[in-house]
Specification:
The structure holds two protein chains of two kinds. In chain A, helix 1 packs antiparallel against helix 2. The longest helix of chain A is centred in the middle third of the chain and has 22 residues. Chain A is mainly α. The N and C termini of chain A lie far apart (34 Å). Chain B is of the alpha/beta class. Chain B contains nine helices and ten strands. Chain B has a five-stranded mixed barrel with strand order 1-2-3-5-4. In chain B, strands 7-6-8-9-10 form a five-stranded parallel beta sheet, sandwiched between helices. The chains are: A mainly alpha, B alpha/beta.
């Protein structure tokens, strides 16, 4: 995931991680890694949502 | 001409005596218009525009070229009209010119309307639309998607209009952190076309602008016609930056709407170009909760499975070990019993043999005793025989003695 990754892709990745965890087919180590990745993508997503300062700029 | 009717002010002196009030001027205009037969024509021809009903009366504008005059059909005449004017109708209007003093405006008080065919502007509109369609600018395939979350919105509108306030408010109501760049442009009049095109082009060149919004509030249809001009439509359609256009009221449609990547209805709907921040916050919250729950569930499932597996393994190990011990114990017991049995058997065998030996020995003893007894008996018998023989010898001797004696005696 990068800054230019679309928001919908980030959401989709988190949803995929959630599905993988819910499937229960992952080991404890994999679950830990998936959770960490999900948290990172979520943090990244929240940072992406901070787009600006709401400035009104008259041209 | 009326004479001056305003007394000189106490504080300000005007260098003229020809001073009238608005009411006087309005009366003069009304007298000129209402009393001038030269201004009354059998028919006035033009395109019907901005047809609307108000207070039971039908209002519309009669337009041609750049001229326009307001027309009103009073309610009691409405049903008797030869034709009911609509937006795409070229009409001939018969009526009387009237000056409405409260608004200082002239109107045709319509007595009848004759349908003269398709309006001139309808033809122009149709031609413009045909040109745009021929170039594929109305095709949905040509339209870009709006960005999921524009960081900066480029707003092209009149800077001092309610539309600007409504659009900015609508955008920031949905997403307060979005920056808005505003390009002030006339939205009607001579300079409008150039300024609107310039605004769109400038924002299209601005790499920081993620979506271009063109908007203006409602107004007379003829004032919206600028948004049907093909040069403006082409600039909007050709912009590399996604465009959104919202012109007039809900029921107003312009070609600029149609070529834009996205159409919103009014300036107050300009917020549609950005998502709702609250929705995204809720989405993030839900995703975070779902992620935690899914992780907890996955871990608990794994731990439960591991616990069950451990318990099973323990049970299996214990059971197996117990079985081994049980088997070993069984074997040991069996071995012990066998050994003990064997020992007992051996002891029994030994005892039996001993018994047999003792029995045999006893028999031997008995035989020996018997033999000894027989020997003793034989010996005793021999002794008795010998004794008997000795007795017999003694007796014989005695007899001989007696006989001898007797013989002697006799002798």
């Amino acid at each position: 995931m990068t800054d230019s990754t679309p928001i919908s892709d980030k959401v989709a990745r988190i949803e995929t991680i959630i599905e993988q965890l819910e499937d229960g087919e992952v080991s404890l180590e994999e679950a830990q890694e998936l959770r960490e990745e999900g948290k990172e993508v979520l943090t990244d997503l929240e940072e992406t949502l901070e787009v600006g300062d709401g400035e009104i700029i008259e041209q | 001409m009326a004479e001056a009717d305003v007394p000189a002010a106490d504080t300000v002196e005007l260098d003229s005596d020809d001073i009238v009030t608005v009411g006087t001027l309005s009366d003069e205009i009304a007298e000129l218009i209402d009393g001038n037969h030269e201004l009354n024509h059998d028919y006035v021809v033009g395109d019907a525009s901005d047809c609307r009903e108000a207070n039971g009366h039908l209002h519309f504008d009669l337009v041609a070229d750049n001229a326009s005059i307001h027309c009103v059909v009073f309610g009691f005449r409405y049903k008797g009209l030869n034709a009911t004017p609509d937006e795409e109708m070229h009409v001939a209007v018969r009526g009387e010119l009237s000056y409405y003093e409260p608004q200082g405006s002239c109107s045709l008080i319509v007595e009848d309307v004759v349908d003269m065919g398709e309006s001139e502007y309808s033809q122009i509109y149709a031609e413009n639309k045909e040109k745009l369609a021929a170039d594929g600018l109305l095709d949905d395939e040509q339209k870009q998607s709006l960005p999921e979350l524009p960081a900066t919105v480029g707003l092209v509108t009149s800077a001092d209009s309610d539309a600007r306030i409504d659009a900015v408010t609508a955008i920031h109501d949905r997403y307060p952190e979005v920056d808005i760049k505003i390009h002030d442009a006339s939205v009607q009049g001579q300079d409008a076309l150039e300024e609107l095109m310039g605004g769109v082009a400038a924002f299209d060149e601005d790499a920081t602008v993620d979506v271009i919004v063109v908007t203006r509030g409602g107004g007379a249809d003829k004032t919206l016609r600028i948004f049907n001009e093909t040069p403006l439509c082409r600039v909007i359609a050709d912009a590399e930056t996604p465009t959104a256009v919202g012109i007039g009221h809900e029921d107003d449609r312009t070609l600029a709407d149609e070529v834009a990547d996205y159409r919103f209805m009014t300036p107050t709907h300009a917020g549609d170009v950005v998502p709702k921040r609250a929705d995204w916050d809720e989405t993030c919250k839900q995703l975070s909760e779902q992620l935690d729950t899914a992780y907890q569930t996955a871990v608990e499932t794994k731990l439960t499975a591991a616990d069950t597996e451990l318990e099973n393994a323990y049970q299996n190990t214990v059971t197996s070990r117990l079985q081994e011990l049980d088997t070993a114990l069984e074997h040991a017991a069996e071995h012990h019993f066998k050994t003990a049995l064997l020992t007992l058997r051996n002891q029994l065998e030994t005892a039996y043999q001993t018994l047999e030996q003792e029995k045999e020995h006893e028999e031997e003893l008995e035989e020996t005793v018997e033999e000894v007894r027989d020997e003793a008996k034989t010996e005793a018998q021999a002794e008795a025989a010998r004794q008997q023989r000795r007795y017999k010898i003694v007796i014989a001797v005695l007899v001989l003695v007696v006989l001898g004696l007797a013989a002697l005696y006799v002798i």
